[in-house]
Here is the input.
Amino acid sequence: MHLSNLDLKVCDFTSRLPGPLAGSILSDLGARVVKLELENALDPFNPKNANSPEEMFGAWYKNLNASKEQLVIKSLESSEVKNVLEESDIALIPGNKKYSVLKELFPETLFIEVCGGSGNQKYLHDLNALFLTKSFKLHLEATNGDTLPYLPFAGVVFAQQIALEALGAYVESTSAKKENRKIYLDQAASRVLDKLWTNSLEDSETPKALHTGKYPCYNIYQSSDGQYIGLAAVENKFWIKFCEIFNLAFSLEDRFDESGRTGQSISKMFLSYTGKEIEELIGNSDICINLFPKKEKE
Here is the structure.
């Protein structure tokens, strides 16, 4: 069901990534979303905030809030807040006392509190939440802890959970008593990401798997001109076609070779071609290969 059919209205007081992304998801589904920011405490991702730390965050802010109505307010007691909340079905708020007062002032609105840690560690950033999951061991083992994940995966997962919980609470409120909810970053990250953790990975000294570069059929390579090549020829038909196109004498079993020899051969082969030559060889064949174009120098 498209949410516009429900005439769903959402008021978003959150900042940074998870809450605004949740609001954006609801907006994409057809809800009317209004983002409110305090004049003296703008969203840290807002480029107008003098303390905004990175240019990238400003771009994220624009993307996350492009489909929302936006209001800058002087205080939470302003008439603008009253007007928006009285029309809203759901309000996304940060989990702190300053915003909790709104629950008392507007008892008819359904409030979803976006919180950090559910235990003793109250304040968490994305990296802290990832460290609390078992699945993050895969990244640490694969990189020896030398690199951080480029994207805030825990925050993305959290945003999805906020949107789902908000919709679930709203549906329940239409047929039963309204119940405000608190959604926690650490619980959301563990609930989702640790479904990808298994006993076999727990018992492994080097917990690599298909998605973390264990096999040559699912890995990242490079061309002679530095383009990245994503090979994901896992199924029989894709591996066979891949070997045919590049004249490789590998068996089906070789795609799961853990010795490193097959991967080294494939790497050497790709390094003998430019990205353009690889694209020409592949043509219209669907063999689960993608090239990431090298950025041209200006």
In short: The first strand starts at residue 9 and ends at 12.
